[in-house]
Amino acid sequence: MTAVTTRTARPPVDVVTGSTRSLRPDVLGAAAAFSLLFVVALWVRGRGLQDLTGWWTGVTSIGRLTGLVSAELLLIQVLLMARVPWIERTYGQDRLAHWHRLVGFTSFNLMLAHIVLITLGYAGTASVPVLREAWDLVTTYPGMLLATAGSAALVMVAVTSVRAARRRLRYESWHLLHLYAYLGAGLALPHQLWTGADFTASPLAAAYWWTAYGVCAAAVVVFRLGVPVWRTVRHRLEVAAVVPEAPGVHSIYLRGRDLHRLPVRAGQFLQWRFLAGPGWSRAHPYSLSAAPRPGSLRITVKSLGDDSRRVSTLRPGTKVLIEGPYGRLTADRRTARRVTMIASGVGITPLRALLEELAYSPGDVTLLYRTRSDADLVFRRELEHLAAVRGVRVLYLLGPRGRDGSWLPAGWGDDAQSLRHLVPDIARHDVFVCGPDPWMESVVRAARRATVPADRIHLERFTW
């Protein structure tokens, strides 16, 4: 077998500066669109259009419509992040999270419009002050106190999802607060059952809304609660060892029972909860850093905050709760014989696991690994072993950050030309990318300018 040695890549002298089962995306998208059209049809069937002929009845009718569409979008939002395997494998968690955010804010804004329009419409029809009508709605209509509490929960979720608020929160804390969206959706149901004219107007409407709520509730109970509990109990994961890899970076080795039956692949991540005192309820999304083995798993964590630093101090025998696996950055995405992997910092973790699991011949795989210095390289000994044994071409891109918007260290020229210099036939490769979000965007831009087809660039974003 031909050995390909590792080396630190230098800027070129003449650089000119300057088969996993899934569903069809169109089927799922069509189902979502049809559900929204059906809700509008229920509104029309319930005299929604006829009521537009009067001023205050029209305001009330539009308020009913915004409430119906808001409720439907809320259910779609819940379903998007219910961890349903077929949906997750079709779109990937990064796209689902993006759509979840867009659908969530749209639903929230429509909910606010529903509250305002219904209150105005009722007040205008009864010729009473708006604040008095709002108070009467909350205190006298069945289910409205619960709906008010549910709205408050959704307001909290929406406020903490704004970008400025997310910057001030740890992911783990934000994730825990975000679960109140389920409470908000559940508390809205009695209001629809008892006072929602479009819910109770016909057996067809009642059957539809009961089915929609039932499907979403079942998805949450089964895939967000049942499956994680079952896998945690079945596999009984615990910490086996904690090993330092680089300054501030540690690998956690985990052992368990029947791990060969855990359907996890190299490149995927799980949500981890370590039962080691305060903070155990907060989930941590960490990728596998080695291909799964029958008796063990490995994750690698960089100390970026209190929770990740706490992970580095775990003791052997610490019990672990898991959710997952999630993610589509697996060998199934591969379409070409040759592969280039591009990593930055601790983003090497899922790509290191893929290097172990992928089938390839010597010279077919190139790894470009970007860090600030030689001391920051993670898994250097393992990467050099893969270079010697499996013929991986490993190039280290070391040095402080270059110009703004570049994925390369200082001293390099044009991003796309440098990429073609490093991997001359990059246009015929699959490109797997992992690192900080802005850095990955820079890599994608360079790869596209280097004529890599968009469907051959594979990455997952972990922003929230």
Automatic annotation (TrEMBL):
Domain FAD-binding FR-type: 232-332
Keywords attached to this entry: 2Fe-2S, FAD, Flavoprotein, Iron, Iron-sulfur, Membrane, Metal-binding, Oxidoreductase, Transmembrane, Transmembrane helix
Origin superkingdom: Bacteria
Localization in the cell: Membrane
Transmembrane stretches, start-end: 27-45, 65-82, 102-123, 143-162, 174-194, 206-227
Requisite cofactors: FAD
CC terms in the record's Gene Ontology section: membrane
InterPro entries: FAD-bd_FR_type (IPR017927), Fe3_Rdtase_TM_dom (IPR013130), FNR_nucleotide-bd (IPR039261), MRET (IPR050415), OxRdtase_FAD/NAD-bd (IPR001433), Riboflavin_synthase-like_b-brl (IPR017938)
Membrane topology, as annotated: Multi-pass membrane protein
GO molecular function: 2 iron, 2 sulfur cluster binding; flavin adenine dinucleotide binding; metal ion binding; oxidoreductase activity
Main location group: membrane
SUPFAM superfamilies: Ferredoxin reductase-like, C-terminal NADP-linked domain, Riboflavin synthase domain-like
UniProt entry tagged with the keyword Transport: no
Annotated protein name in UniProt: Oxidoreductase
Source species of the chain: Planosporangium mesophilum
